[in-house]
Amino acid sequence: MNVAVDFKNVDIVFGPDTADALAMVDRGATRAEILEQTGNVLGCAGANLTIHEGEISVLMGLSGSGKSTLLRAVNRLNIVSRGQVLVKDGEKMVNVVSCDAATLRRLRQNQVAMVFQQFGLLPWRTVEENVGLGLELAGVPDAERKARVDKQLKLVNLDPWAKKYAHELSGGMQQRVGLARAFATEAPILLMDEPFSALDPLIRTKLQDELLQLQKTLKKTIIFVSHDLEEALKIGSHITIMEGGRIVQTGAPEDIVLRPANDYVRDFIANVNPLSVLTAWNVMRDRRDLESAGRGWTWLDRRKTTRFKVDKDGLVAAAERDGKPVEWVSCTDVEQHPEDGTQVYWANPGTPLKTVMLAMHRSQTAPVALFDEQSRFVGAIGVRDVLSAVLRR
Ligand SMILES: Nc1ncnc2c1ncn2[C@@H]1O[C@H](COP(=O)(O)OP(=O)(O)OP(=O)(O)O)[C@@H](O)[C@H]1O
């Protein structure tokens, strides 16, 4: 996967004379200590983060943790005191910290678009004029602008509204126009600074869905600042948690939920429902860790009700439940096959844990076998595996 943005040892200090503050950063001083001794504000320190093309990378943390500071370094709205911020520009990476003014201008026009809170539509402009605003400012010729705007409006099903004035639209629709405008710039990298934070929860959820939908076809690289973990878990392919200007953890949503790096992250996830992020893969016991039942057989569960004989290619050659041959039932079909003690329940690793749990519930806690796309047996889930994941212990 190609890298779109790469932060390398990025320190940002706000203030006239940063040398003393940077020396304190090197000694691991806190933001409060740096402020007290030097009068400078530490924006962020030692930030290392690699963002791949097509990812939605969410920067998360409490107010003042440095999320926006880091985001704004990508298009040099913030001056980096030390380190590099590499941004993909065609086939090469450009260090925005040190590039010349012409290169920076080009990057801002063609590569990196910034979306601020609430999008701010201009009420006296029509929908199409609003969507085309960024292109107009960038000096894109009329005909090309019209074609690009039409395309984006169709994408979000707003083309029938093109000639309406922004003030004639409902709040939610205005936000969709705003989102279309953000995607209309065609810049491959989008910086989004809490775009949905001021919206009521219903509209917010809808726009998150819309963003994910647009992303499916457009596959932009999105860096998204949020202080809402539910939002981060929903839209982020990766989440980076910041505290006091420093990155404390980066990982996939399930990494954050299953393996919080410290108490700060633990506090964040305390009220998160793990079922919203976990898949079968996250809780299964790997096939190699299951107990042998002798002569090539493997027990799926600790209670030793179900066992498989797996051939050298990883395919199941024989399966027994309580010593009898079995009927295979997918976790999604449990309702149609009432439990009678002869079934083996199966799923793919990407199946939501919730689906697996429903199957377990209906089947009176039978184990679930997981198979990959080539029908190879990869692991099993028992009730205890589910409980430890949900209870995080
Ligand atoms: N231009 C600036 N000049 C001076 N200090 C700044 C500037 N921008 C940010 N800071 C300081 O840097 C620190 C990090 O701010 P930042 O805005 O990145 O936090 P944040 O995590 O995005 O918070 P929020 O969610 O409140 O926006 C804060 O202490 C802030 O006061």
Automatic annotation (TrEMBL):
Pfam families: ABC_tran (PF00005). It comes from the Bacteria. Residues 29-269 form the ABC transporter domain. The keyword Nucleotide-binding applies. GO terms for biological process: response to osmotic stress. GO terms for molecular function: ABC-type quaternary ammonium compound transporting activity; ATP binding; ATP hydrolysis activity; choline transmembrane transporter activity. One of its GO terms (cellular component) is ATP-binding cassette (ABC) transporter complex, substrate-binding subunit-containing. Keywords: ATP-binding, Nucleotide-binding, Transport. Its EC number is 7.6.2.9. InterPro entries: AAA+_ATPase (IPR003593), ABC_osmolyte_uptake_ATP-bind (IPR051921), ABC_transporter-like_ATP-bd (IPR003439), ABC_transporter-like_CS (IPR017871), ABC_trnsptr_Choline_ATP-bd (IPR022473), CBS_dom_sf (IPR046342), P-loop_NTPase (IPR027417). SMART domains: AAA (SM00382). It catalyses: a quaternary ammonium(out) + ATP + H2O = a quaternary ammonium(in) + ADP + phosphate + H(+). The keyword Chaperone does not apply. Transmembrane segments: none annotated. Belongs to the ABC transporter superfamily. The complex is probably composed of two ATP-binding proteins (TmoW), two transmembrane proteins (TmoV) and a solute-binding protein (TmoX). This is Trimethylamine N-oxide transport system ATP-binding protein TmoW. It comes from Neomesorhizobium albiziae.
